[in-house]
Amino acid sequence: EAGVVQSPRYKIIEKKQPVAFWCNPISGHNTLYWYLQNLGQGPELLIRYENEEAVDDSQLPKDRFSAERLKGVDSTLKIQPAELGDSAVYLCASSVAGAPSDEQFFGPGTRLTVL
Amino acid sequence: AQSVTQPDIHITVSEGASLELRCNYSYGATPYLFWYVQSPGQGLQLLLKYFSGDTLVQGIKGFEAEFKRSQSSFNLRKPSVHWSDAAEYFCAVGAGQTGANNLFFGTGTRLTVIP
Predict the structure, then answer these.
(1) Which residue from A26, A42, B58, B100 puts its CA 20 to 30 A from B33's CA?
(2) What are the residues facing B92 on neighbouring strands?
(3) Is pLDDT at A99 greater than 90 in this prediction?
(4) Which residues of A touch B44 (CB under 8 A)?
(5) Can you list the positions of beta strands (E) in B18-108?
(6) B107 and A41: CB-CB below 8 Å?
(7) What is the mean predicted confidence (pLDDT) over B92-102?
(8) Which long-range contacts does B67-75 make (Cβ < 8 Å, 24+ apart)?
(9) pLDDT range class, residue B99, cuts 50, 70, 90
(10) Please, which residues have CB within 8 angstroms of residue A44's CB and are 6 or more apart in sequence?
C-alpha cells in the first residue's frame, strides 16, 4: 500500500514568489493534516481536514497561506507571497478518521528554501 | 494548554547500550501520548502510543515507553541500541477533545549511535 505522497520534495524560490505543495493521502483516509516543521523543532499543525472540510485552521496564517481539498482526497497548500521565514519542511499526514486513536501517517515532506 | 518538553536535544550512545529518552507533558485531562521517529529525509513513523490501561507500552523496533502520571512523563526506552536507531525522536501529546486528533510535538531529541 502506498504511503502519503508529497511533491515536490524540495523547492527553492525567491522571496515574494508564490509556491504550492501537493499531498495525496493514503487511500481511504478521510482526515488530512498539514504541518510546518522548522529546523530543530517539532511539527506544528497548520490545518486539519475532515473530508473536504477544514475543521481546524486556527494556526494557518491566512494572510499568505491557503489550502484546499476540493474532492476530499488530495490537497494543496499554497503560500503567496513567500517570505524568508517560511523556509521550513511542510509535512502532510493522513489518518482514517479524526479520532485520537487513529494513527497519523506522515509523508516525507517538502523542504522549502526561500532566498 | 497542552505542551511537551523533551529536555535532551542530543544524546549519544554506544551501539548495544541501553537508551532512555525523556518526555514530560502538560495536559489537563488524560493525555494521549505518542513517540515518533524521523530519519533524515523521511516522514515521521509512529513507534508507540498510550491511551489508557497498562502504563508500560510496547512498540515497534524493540522500543517501549512508560507512562507515569505522577511525574507527567512518558519516557522512551530501548535495552540495546542498534546503529540503525540513529534518528530524531519526537514525543507528542494528543488533544483529544471532541474527537479531534491534533498532535502537539516536543522539539525532538537527536540520537547518535557510535560503534
Answers:
(1) A26
(2) B34, B105
(3) no
(4) 43, 91, 93, 106
(5) 19-21, 24-26, 32-38, 44-50, 56-58, 64-68, 73-78, 87-95, 102-105
(6) yes
(7) 68
(8) B67/B33, B71/B24, B72/B24, B72/B25, B72/B26, B73/B22, B73/B23, B73/B24, B73/B25, B74/B23, B74/B24, B74/B25, B74/B31, B74/B33, B74/B35, B74/B50, B75/B20, B75/B21, B75/B22, B75/B23
(9) very low
(10) A35, A36, A37, A38, A59, B105
Length of chain B: 115
Place of cell 489508557: B52
pLDDT band at B101 (very low <50, low <70, confident <90, very high): low
Tell me if residue B90 falls in helix, strand or coil: strand
Among B51, B92, B100, the residue with its CB nearest the CB of A56 is B100
Mean pLDDT of B56-73: 95
What number of H helices and E strands is found in chain B? 0, 12
Q: Quick check: B4 contacting A, CB < 8 Å? A: yes
Higher per-residue pLDDT: A37 or A58: A37
Q: Best interface-test mutation with B: which of A30, A106, A110, A111 has the largest number of B CBs within 10 A? A: A106
Residue in A29, A57, A101, A105 to test binding to B, most B beta-carbons within 10 Å: A101
Contact A106 B51 (CB under 8 A): no
Q: Is the pLDDT of residue B95 over 80?
A: no
